[in-house]
Amino acid sequence: MAQPTAATAAPLPALQTPPDSGGSSALAKYRDLAAQAEKANEDLLKAQDDLKAKQKDLDKANGDVDTAHSQSDAAAADEAKYKVDVDKFAGASFLSGVQMNKLSALLAGSSTQEFLDRSAALDQIAAEKDAALQKLAGAVQQAKDAENLASDAAERATTARDGAKKLTDDITAKKKKLNDQIDQLKKTEPSLSALDRSLRGDTGGEVPSNIHAPGPAADAALQAALSKLGSPYEWGATGPSQFDCSGLMKWAYEKAGVSLPRSSSAQSTFGTPVQRSQLQPGDLVFYYSPVSHVGMYIGNGKMVHAPTTGDVVKISPLQSQYVGARRVA
C-alpha cells in the first residue's frame, strides 16, 4: 500500500531586482530618474488625497458650527421665554392681597369647600411654577451645551482649515519637485539609443494562458489590467489609454465595480493585508517605504504594472523593494 505523500506549502513568490533588459548606462540612468519622478508623482497624489479628506473635515466642522449656533439661538429664545414665566411666579407673592399658601387659604376661607377649592388652585399654581422652573433650567443647560458644541466645532474647523492650508502648500512644493524631475528626464532623453527606446516598450512577454483570480471581481480587474499591456505610462493618468501605477489599479478595479483610493500609498491601506506566501491573482502588491509603487499579482511570482514614464504597462517579476500586499476583492 502506497504511503501518503506529505503536503507541501506553495512556494514563496521570489523577489527580483528589476532587470535592465540589456540597455545602456544612459537607459539605466533614465530609469533611475524616472523612478524618482514616479515617487514624486505618488507623493503628490497622496497629498491631494489628504487634502480632499481634510476638506471633508472642514466642511463637516463648518456645518457643525452652523448647527450649534442655530441650537444656541433656539435655546436662548427658550430661556428668555421661560424666564418670563418664572419671573411672574416670583412676583406673585400675594394673590388678591392674600399670601399664596394653604394656611392663608384656610384662614381666609368661609367654608370647607372654599378651602378645598383654594387648595386645589394653589396646587395647580405650584405645579405650573415647578414646570416653568424645570423648563428654564433645561433651556439654560441646552444653551450651555450648544455653546460648548459651537466652541468644539469652531476649534475643529480652525484645525482643519490650518491643515488644508499646509497641505495646499505641500502640494505646491510636490508639484515643483515633480516638474523638476520631469525636466531632468527630458535632458537625458536625447542620450538614449534606438535600442534603449525599443526596450522601454517591452511588455514582458506574452500573457500566460489561463490566468484567473479566484473571485469574480478580482478576476475582472485582473483581465482589465492585462488588457492594457503596452499602454504608455503617464503621470497622473487613470486610463483608458494611459496610466500611472496607481491609476492602472484604480481603473482596472473600477471595471470590476470596486472603487480604490487614488494613490499607491492610500491603496496600501485598503482591503485586507495578505502574506507573500498567500498571494493570489488580483492582489495588489506594493513597493518601497513609504509606498510609492503598486502592481497587481498575476501568479507565478509575477505582476502586471505601469512601471514609470517612458515605459509601458507590462508583466514583471515581483521586485526586491516589495513591502506588502492587499486583497481588495
TrEMBL record:
It comes from the Bacteria. Keywords: Coiled coil, Hydrolase, Protease, Thiol protease. Residues 1-19 have a biased composition (Low complexity). Residues 215-329 form the NlpC/P60 domain. It comes from Amycolatopsis jiangsuensis. Pfam families: NLPC_P60. GO terms for biological process: proteolysis. Belongs to the peptidase C40 family. The keyword Cytoplasm does not apply. InterPro entries: NLP_P60_dom, Papain-like_cys_pep_sf, PG_Endopeptidase_C40. This is Cell wall-associated NlpC family hydrolase. Residues 57-67 have a biased composition (Basic and acidic residues). Residues 122-188 form a coiled coil.
